[in-house]
């Protein structure tokens, strides 16, 4: 009897709770809003307006366009079509429901300003997000509220300030070069022009950057986390349209089971990295990565190990998710817009070439890129990765004339605000970066409605890093490739937590020369020729002029000397040697001050050993004696004068540089062995004779000089011949061609009179060929 009574009380209690949750509470909130004149579409029991939204979304998705018609960019009409319709019907402020969650839609500029810049902790991230995306985001910085959020922001923010981001530029450059290298290989493999699906590659790029920024030297392990997070994100976005339906996240459906398994695996992977990091803490490093900051923050105000673990795991996931997908889609849309607008593409390319002058863009250079900034701003206006900024009133609050009851959500639709013709003018759906010529203030009447990175206290923490990534990547891509929209591209923006191309992003990419030759004017062709190679930038300096393909060049070369010497070359497996290859070319062509120093150093060494008769070991010992004596006396003298000990700087040889050197040496040795094999294989008589002749010449020259003099002469030649050849290439080419013709004549005479008469069969074959 007692048991029956308890069961009945429990059942009635549950029913009452459900009635309150599903009917009374939403009705109360709707009534409170209605009283203030806020209306909206009629919600259905349990689902609210979800079915209507789903139907409208599916209908809009069917209207897709191909690459030829990407000239109007109303992506809001495809991804959030119901808002357009409700906006027209109910005005700038209206309400709707997602399940039992009540939402007020706001696009009225003044009210938007009040909401987004509100600093009260009573306005926070919607609580339904924590429930719905708990497995993806946990209670990290993106979803948490109140003092816990403020604590997380305090820990993470300083790590993403501009001065820290400047320290990450190297890793952004490296990741960008890896991407360019892979595209270059693909284009070369397909004969100079290729349709490339850029979005997965761009995700890999931004994931790579975040992995390195987050996990430092452990970044390779971050890759596995990255793939699992992507899968978790896909599983979570499949649930977007069931947002707000109570209890649905507890049902062990296939999707939910997949989500739970991934969540567990990701947690285990992150904690494994943390464990390894703690173990290696015996040798603390000055360079703190983001994970290090999270680890230090986790120990403050946390009582249990589980709370510490959750803090670490949630924030790692949050940074990853906040940073990689958003930046990747931002880059994707920006490249799509540049591919569809060749004039802007060329404008930005010209600017980059002029600023970078054959160097890889750095912090200072990207700061000067005004045209690129305008293009990125316009791209983020038309395709903001984050479509909705949402908040929840955690207590009753007032915005303008409207009193917002506790529990009501406020949604600001970024796509609507970014394309409203009343704010941006009649061309609001067109790509026109010129509108940002005078910055954001000059572009629209209400600058605060431009919010690709949000505004106010919860503004994006990673915007500096994102902009640096975008600028470095896009500037490098434009100087290396020419972009156009592939005919196979289907323009269909889709909402999967971020706004992304629904069918992927296909861009036709080619070496700039080939592309423009095919479809544009001679003037463009000449311009593109100037941009043929990243390292051979277009400048007024005659020594860097582009190669004229019609003219005969020595050894039939069709590339500038700098490029032949390896400058900006993007092939080969060891992409990280690239930067050094570029530097070698710069040094040989006297584009770096070090060239003079090298020549002078080589001359001094040669003079000491060869002319004065100094010995290597003696020189090393004498140098060490002098430097040790100077430092010893200086340390003691400074102690005497300043009364403080002068500590000598700790010198650590950079591991990366040594790796590069060793790899470069290994590559050169491998290619030398390859050439030896090829010549020795007996297939090419001409090559064989060239090799024998060259070695014979070297053996004679070797007899005339000592080894050191020979090395010195080679150094002098390396530092003078390419430089002089680049400067006086035309004259050298003319005389060189004459000399080669003469040599060929002599060779054919020898061939006819001697070689053909020898009874060796392959000589005759080679002649026929
Ligand atoms: C183009 C790239 C990016 C875009 C468009 C973007 C956009 C945004 C937006 C709109 C918000 C604010 C959401 C709101 O107010 O509710 C935000 C927050 C945030 N973003 Fe980004 N983001 C980008 C890149 C990054 C990167 C690279 C990182 C980290 C490395 C990052 C870390 C964060 C964090 C931690 C927050 C939460 C701030 C808080 O709630 O206090 N974002 N982002």
UniProtKB/TrEMBL annotation:
Q: Which cofactor does it need?
A: heme
Which key words are in the record? Endoplasmic reticulum, Heme, Iron, Membrane, Metal-binding, Monooxygenase, Oxidoreductase, Transmembrane, Transmembrane helix
> Which residue intervals define the domain Reticulon in the entry?
584-769
Q: Which compartments is it annotated to reside in?
A: Endoplasmic reticulum membrane
Transmembrane annotation, as ranges: 589-609, 616-637, 688-714
GO MF annotation terms:
heme binding; iron ion binding; monooxygenase activity; oxidoreductase activity, acting on paired donors, with incorporation or reduction of molecular oxygen
Its placement in the membrane is given as: Multi-pass membrane protein
Residues that hold heme according to the record: 460
> What family, per the record?
Belongs to the cytochrome P450 family.
Q: Which PANTHER family match?
A: CYTOCHROME P450 714C2, CYTOCHROME P450 FAMILY MEMBER
Q: What is this protein called in UniProt?
A: Reticulon-like protein
Organism, scientific name: Solanum lycopersicum
């Amino acid at each position: 009897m007692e048991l029956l009574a308890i069961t009945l009380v429990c059942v009635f209690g549950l029913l009452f709770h459900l009635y309150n949750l599903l009917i009374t509470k939403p009705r109360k909130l709707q009534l409170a809003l209605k009283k203030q004149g806020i209306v909206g579409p009629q919600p259905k029991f349990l689902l609210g307006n979800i079915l209507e939204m789903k139907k409208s979304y599916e209908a809009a998705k069917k209207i897709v366009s191909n690459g030829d018609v990407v000239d109007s960019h109303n992506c809001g009409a495809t991804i959030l079509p119901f808002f357009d319709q409700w906006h027209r019907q109910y005005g700038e402020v209206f309400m709707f429901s997602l399940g039992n969650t009540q939402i007020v839609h706001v696009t009225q500029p003044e009210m938007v300003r009040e909401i987004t810049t509100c600093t009260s902790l009573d306005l926070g991230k919607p609580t339904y997000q924590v429930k719905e995306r708990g497995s993806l985001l946990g209670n990290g910085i993106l979803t948490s509220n109140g003092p816990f959020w403020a604590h997380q922001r305090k820990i993470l923010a300083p790590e993403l300030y501009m001065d820290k981001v400047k320290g990450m530029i190297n890793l952004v450059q490296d990741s960008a070069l890896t991407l360019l290298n892979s595209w270059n290989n693909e284009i070369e493999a397909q004969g100079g022009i290729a349709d490339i699906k850029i979005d997965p590659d761009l995700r890999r790029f931004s994931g790579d950057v975040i992995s390195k920024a987050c996990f430092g030297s452990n970044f390779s392990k971050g890759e596995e986390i990255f793939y699992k997070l992507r899968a978790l994100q896909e599983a979570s976005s499949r649930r977007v349209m069931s947002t707000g339906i109570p209890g649905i996240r507890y049902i062990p459906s296939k999707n939910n089971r997949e989500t739970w398994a991934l969540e567990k695996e990701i947690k285990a992977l992150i904690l494994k990295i943390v464990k390894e990091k703690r173990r290696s803490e015996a040798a603390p490093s000055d360079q703190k990565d983001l994970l290090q900051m999270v680890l230090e923050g986790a120990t403050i105000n946390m009582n249990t190990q589980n709370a510490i673990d959750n803090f670490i795991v949630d924030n790692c996931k949050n940074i990853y998710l906040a940073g990689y997908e958003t930046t990747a889609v931002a880059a994707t849309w920006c490249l799509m817009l540049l591919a569809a607008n060749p004039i802007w593409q060329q404008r930005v390319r010209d600017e980059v070439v002029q600023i970078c002058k054959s160097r890889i863009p750095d912090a200072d250079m990207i700061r000067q890129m005004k045209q690129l900034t305008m293009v990125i701003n316009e791209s983020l206006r038309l395709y903001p990765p984050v479509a909705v900024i949402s908040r929840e009133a955690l207590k009753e609050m007032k915005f303008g004339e409207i009193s917002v009851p506790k529990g009501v959500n406020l949604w600001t639709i970024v796509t609507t605000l970014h394309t409203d013709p009343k704010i941006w003018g009649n061309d609001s759906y067109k790509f026109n970066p010129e509108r940002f010529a005078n910055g954001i203030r000059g572009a629209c009447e209400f600058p605060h409605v431009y919010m690709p990175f949000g505004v106010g206290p919860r503004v994006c923490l990673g915007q500096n890093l994102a902009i640096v990534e975008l600028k470095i990547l896009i500037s490098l891509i434009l100087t290396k490739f020419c972009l156009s929209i592939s005919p196979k591209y289907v323009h269909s923006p889709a909402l999967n937590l971020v706004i992304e191309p629904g069918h992927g992003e296909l861009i036709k990419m080619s070496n700039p020369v080939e592309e423009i030759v095919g479809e544009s004017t001679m003037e463009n062709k000449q311009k593109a020729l100037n941009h043929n190679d990243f390292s051979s930038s277009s400048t007024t300096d005659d020594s860097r002029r582009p190669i004229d393909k019609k003219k005969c060049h020595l050894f039939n070369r069709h590339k500038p000397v700098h490029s032949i010497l390896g400058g900006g070359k993007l092939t080969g497996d060891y992409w990280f040697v690239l930067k050094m290859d570029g530097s070698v070319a710069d040094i040989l062509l006297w584009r770096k001050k070090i060239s003079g120093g090298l020549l002078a150093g080589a001359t001094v060494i040669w003079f000491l050993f060869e002319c004065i008769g100094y010995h290597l070991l003696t020189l090393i010992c004498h140098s060490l004696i002098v430097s040790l004596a100077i430092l010893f006396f200086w340390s003691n003298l400074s102690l005497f004068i300043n009364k403080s000990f002068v500590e000598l700087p700790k010198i650590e040889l950079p591991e990366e540089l040594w790796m590069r050197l060793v790899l470069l040496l290994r590559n050169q040795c491998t290619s030398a062995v390859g050439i030896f094999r090829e010549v020795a294989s007996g297939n090419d008589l001409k090559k064989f004779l060239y090799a024998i002749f060259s070695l014979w010449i070297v053996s004679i020259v070797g007899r005339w000089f000592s080894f050191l003099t020979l090395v010195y002469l080679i150094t002098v030649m390396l530092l003078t011949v390419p430089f002089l050849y680049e400067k006086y290439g035309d004259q050298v080419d003319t005389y060189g061609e004459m000399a080669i013709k003469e040599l060929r004549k002599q060779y054919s005479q020898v061939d006819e009179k001697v070689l053909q008469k020898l009874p060796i069969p392959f000589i005759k074959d080679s002649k026929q060929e």
